[in-house]
Design goal:
Number of strands: 0
Shape: rod-shaped
Strand content: under 5%
Oligomer: single chain
Order of helices and strands: HHH
Length: 64
């Protein structure tokens, strides 16, 4: 068996990728959607003071 027949990813056999996905990921639209959502989630997390419901600050508690 010839090596050309085993290489299904070569351009001669109709394959379109000659590099691994992690090297060409920034050309994929799914990568950019995930990146935008991740940055948005980090911004929300930081902007809401760690997703806390109660405000952070000095609240004086009176002890009877």
């Amino acid at each position: 068996m010839d090596k050309k027949h085993l290489d299904t990813n070569s351009k001669e056999n109709g394959g379109q990728y000659d590099r691994p996905y992690w090297k060409r990921a920034h050309h994929d639209w799914k990568f950019w959607i995930v990146l935008v959502l991740m940055v948005l989630a980090m911004g929300i997390y930081l902007g809401t003071e760690d997703l806390s419901i109660r405000p952070h600050g000095k609240i004086e508690q009176r002890v009877p």
